[in-house]
Every structure is written in structure tokens, then in C-alpha cells.
């Protein structure tokens, strides 16, 4: 047919920070290398069956279809009704004796939740689980082992720009003492580099920019030569002339055992009130709390000039949600500028059709009363004075006596300004008193106690 390994095989579009999607052009050699490696590494055979859950606009679908057909295995394609209702997935897996599960972690979580609620509460047909495309929490690993006791579970990583996957981690027989699984080791004919700002290798344990090299790299972005030249640069570590490496935009570090560990996104390094922070570092500490099932953070600027660090939390079903407990948990381990100003409870993280976190769907923090149990108006002159000052300073519609200064958008720098305004209003307060009494009710009592002592 005149097609060789260097010709384009497919174009898949990936989102861009500018809102303009980028078409990634993958060659036959890159896709074929990944497929052959996975099938040999995980011993995929013609008797296997994989269920195709990923959208065909998502590169996991490339393996779902061609990975199976490459060894003569079967692809189970759910109907639209079955695809849209996760409660049908365990029955579908049993009906067709699906042996391979390949998805983002969020879809695996849906399968686990659906399976553990049934009788029997396990699926024996699945022998291989491959999870990629998003953060893989350790808690999900344990749940997947319970729901699919016969399965070997692998975490994979990489980029659309590098032929589906470039790195994998085998969790078989391992106890993971972190909140998420390591990134792992490179796949066949692929290279992973952790480099500093001078493109020099970082020592073990030191995080830097993650680059991917090897045969899996895309030709570039379709009709975007400038962007391609920016992200695909010369590979100084390769022995092949003209070799390139791809700047992923991820931060990673090498561990002493030879595995890569994902640290976060370069664009997750944000500045809040002059401090540079990494959102992934806060998420890691937050998810270590036993009451937190899932969590993510983002910096919001819903009012011009007011940049707020907001935490979105899916609580553990049995533990419940308590923003103050989580705030104290973070405050005990992180500096105050890394503690979110608002904690928002979610029943589930919003997902895109591909199963990734949909950050644009995360709700704006409430600009009015945040207290549990509804609004309670301030009582007495001191509470009314405090509420009036808070409304002016935080630009909120109203403040209840149970409301928390930090939940309404306050932060450590505003505490100083709040102290000045309260002094002007005739209240004798110091910043430490505000930090330890963040509600109108508790701060009013503290102010009254100070006055009595004076």
C-alpha cells in the first residue's frame, strides 16, 4: 500500500492552555512500538478481551482497538446506554468475560464502586488492569485488588505526543506507602529525562522538568511548526543523529529504586501573594487525611486582583466533611500561604468525556454565608461591628455569626488589614487572636474577654 513506519498513522487532538486544541501527529513506528511492547510485556494473547470505554478522540482507544487486533484478541464495544451507566459495567464484563481493563483511574473507580455493591462483590475474569491518563491514588489500588482479585495492576504514563505511553509501574506484590503510585520505568525504546533549567540531569531525589525521548515521539503538531519547535527539541543524550525529546510540562524526580515519581505540572507552580507554590504538593498532604477520598486544588480569580487558593474535596463516605479539620491538618504541615482559603465539598469530581478532571466545571466558592446549618445573623454590637468590617474587607454580601474568615476568602495578609480596621472601629484585637478565632462568634467572645481584662 506504499505506507512505511515513518508515515503518519493518526492525529489526535489534545487540549492547550490557550483553549486552541493541538493536533498530535503520530507515526506508525511509534504506535507499533508501544503496542508490541505492551503486548509482550503483559503477555496479551488472542484469547483476551478488552472493553473499549475510552473515546476515540483519546489515545487510550488506540490500544483498545489496535492493541487487541495486533494479537487477534477481541474488542468489546459497549452500546451507548451501557457506556453511559457505570452500574452496567460489572455485568458487561461478566457477560463477555472481559480479561483486560484499560482506562483512566476515574473509570476504574466507577467499576470498583459498582462491583463492591453487588453480590458477589468481585470480578474474576479480569486478569490485567492498565490505568493511565490521570493521578492514580493508592486507595484505588487496594480497592481494585479487592474488586478484581485475579488481576495484575499496572500504572502507565506518558503523553499523547509520545504514542500513548512511555513509562509503566508494576504494582504486583507491592505495598505503596505514598498517596499515589510512582510513575515507573521507561518502556522499550523510550527514554525519560529529569532535567534542570540548563537541560542537565537532576540528581536522584531532586525534581526537575520531565522530557520524553525515543521512537514514540510524534512528528509534531499538525500545521503548528512554531509550537512543534518549542516543545520538541534536540535530544543531547541520544546516540541517534537528529533525535529529539519532548518537553512534557510535568515535574518529576528519580527515586533511589530507579522509578520515576510524578511531582506535578510546571503550570501548577503558581504564585500566591508573592509565594511560589506547587499545587501537587498541597494535594499530596491533603489526601493523606483519612477523611479525604479525592482532592484537587486550583487558584481562582473570580474577582479581579483577588487570587484565592481553593481546595475541592470528595470526602470519605464514612468520615464526612469538616473544613476546619482539614485546614488544621494542612496548617500543621505547611506554611500558612499554602493553606487554601476555601474548602468546597463535592459528591464527585467533575470529569471530561475522557474521564479526566474537568477544572472548568469546578464551582466558584460562595460569596455569601458559608456556615453550616444556614445563615445566622450577628448578635450584639461587637458581632455586628465585626460583620460589617468583614463585609467591607472581603467584599461579600453578608456575614453570619458562624461564618469563617478564611472560608469567605480571608488569608494571612488580610488578617493584618483586618486588624487595622478593627482597631479603627474601637475593637482591641491582635492578629494572633484573629487566627485562633476565625468566626464572628468566637472572635467577638475573644474581644470581650480582652476588654474585661483591660
Structure description:
The protein is an alpha+beta fold. Helix content is 29%, strand content 24%. It contains 13 helices and 20 strands. The strands form 6 sheets. A 5-stranded mixed sheet has the order 5-6-7-8-9, covered by helices on one side. Strands 10, 11, 13, 14 and 15 form a 5-stranded antiparallel sheet that branches. Strands 1-2-12 form a 3-stranded antiparallel sheet. Helix 10 (380-394) crosses helix 11. The chain is elongated and about 90 Å long. The model has no long low-confidence stretch (mean pLDDT 86).
Major sheet: 5 strands, mixed
* Main sheet strand line-up: 5-6-7-8-9
What is the quaternary state of this protein? single chain
Spans of 5+ residues with little confidence (pLDDT < 50)? none
Helix content: 25-40%
Mean pLDDT across all amino acids: 86
β-strand amount: 15-25%
Radius of gyration: 26 Å
The best one-word shape is: elongated
Number of helical regions: 13
Note the topology:
Layout: E1 8-14, E2 22-27, H1 28-41, E3 49-51, H2 60-69, E4 74-76, H3 80-84, H4 89-95, E5 100-103, H5 105-116, E6 128-131, H6 138-147, E7 152-157, E8 167-170, E9 185-186, E10 190-195, E11 208-214, E12 220-221, H7 225-231, E13 232-234, E14 244-254, E15 260-265, E16 269-272, E17 275-278, H8 279-287, E18 292-303, E19 306-315, H9 323-331, E20 342-345, H10 380-394, H11 412-424, H12 431-436, H13 440-453
Parallel strand pairs: 3-4, 5-6, 6-7, 19-20
Antiparallel strand pairs: 1-2, 2-12, 7-8, 8-9, 10-11, 11-14, 13-14, 14-15, 16-17, 18-19
Amino acid at each position: 500500500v506504499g505506507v512505511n513506519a515513518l508515515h503518519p498513522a493518526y492525529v489526535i487532538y489534545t487540549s492547550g492552555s490557550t483553549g486552541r486544541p493541538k493536533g498530535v501527529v503520530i507515526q506508525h513506528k511509534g504506535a507499533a512500538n508501544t503496542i508490541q511492547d505492551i503486548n509482550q510485556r503483559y503477555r496479551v494473547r488472542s484469547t483476551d478481551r478488552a472493553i473499549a470505554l475510552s473515546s476515540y478522540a483519546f489515545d487510550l482507544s488506540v490500544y483498545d482497538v489496535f492493541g487487541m487486533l495486533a494479537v487477534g484478541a477481541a474488542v468489546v464495544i459497549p452500546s451507548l446506554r451501557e457506556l453511559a451507566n457505570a452500574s452496567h459495567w460489572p455485568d458487561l464484563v461478566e457477560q463477555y468475560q472481559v480479561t483486560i481493563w484499560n482506562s483512566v483511574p476515574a473509570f476504574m473507580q466507577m467499576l470498583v464502586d459498582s462491583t463492591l455493591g453487588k453480590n458477589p462483590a468481585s470480578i474474576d475474569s479480569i486478569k490485567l488492569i492498565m490505568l493511565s491518563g490521570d493521578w492514580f491514588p493508592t486507595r484505588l489500588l487496594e480497592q481494585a485488588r479487592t474488586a478484581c482479585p485475579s488481576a495484575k495492576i499496572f500504572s502507565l504514563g506518558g503523553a499523547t505526543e509520545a504514542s500513548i505511553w512511555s513509562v509503566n509501574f508494576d504494582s504486583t506484590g507491592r505495598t505503596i506507602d505514598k498517596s499515589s503510585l510512582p510513575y515507573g520505568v521507561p518502556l522499550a525504546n523510550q527514554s525519560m529525562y529529569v532535567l534542570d533549567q540548563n537541560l542537565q540531569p537532576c540528581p536522584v531525589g531532586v525534581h526537575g522538568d520531565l522530557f520524553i525521548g525515543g521512537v514514540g515521539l510524534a512528528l509534531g503538531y499538525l500545521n503548528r511548526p512554531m509550537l512543534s519547535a518549542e516543545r520538541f527539541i534536540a535530544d543531547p543524550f541520544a546516540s541517534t543523529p537528529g533525535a529529539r525529546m519532548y518537553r512534557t510540562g510535568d515535574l518529576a524526580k528519580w527515586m533511589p529504586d530507579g522509578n520515576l515519581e510524578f511531582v506535578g505540572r510546571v503550570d501548577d507552580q503558581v504564585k500566591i501573594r508573592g509565594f511560589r507554590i506547587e499545587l501537587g504538593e498541597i494535594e499530596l498532604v491533603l489526601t493523606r487525611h483519612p477523611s479525604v477520598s479525592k482532592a484537587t486544588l486550583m487558584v481562582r480569580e473570580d474577582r479581579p486582583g483577588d487570587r484565592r487558593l481553593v481546595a475541592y474535596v470528595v470526602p470519605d463516605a464514612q468520615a464526612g466533611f469538616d473544613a476546619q479539620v482539614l485546614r488544621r491538618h494542612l496548617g500543621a504541615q505547611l506554611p500558612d500561604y499554602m493553606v487554601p482559603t476555601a474548602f468546597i465539598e463535592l459528591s464527585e469530581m467533575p470529569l471530561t468525556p475522557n474521564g479526566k478532571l474537568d477544572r472548568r466545571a469546578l464551582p466558584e466558592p460562595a460569596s455569601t454565608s458559608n456556615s453550616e446549618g444556614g445563615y445566622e445573623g450577628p448578635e450584639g454590637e461587637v458581632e455586628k461591628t465585626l460583620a460589617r468590617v468583614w463585609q467591607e474587607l472581603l467584599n461579600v454580601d453578608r456575614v453570619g455569626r458562624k461564618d469563617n474568615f478564611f472560608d469567605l476568602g480571608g488569608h494571612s495578609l488580610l488578617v493584618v488589614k483586618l486588624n487595622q480596621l478593627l482597631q479603627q472601629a474601637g475593637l482591641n484585637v491582635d492578629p494572633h487572636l484573629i487566627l485562633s478565632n476565625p468566626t464572628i462568634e468566637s472572635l467577638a467572645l475573644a474581644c470581650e474577654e480582652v476588654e474585661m481584662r483591660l
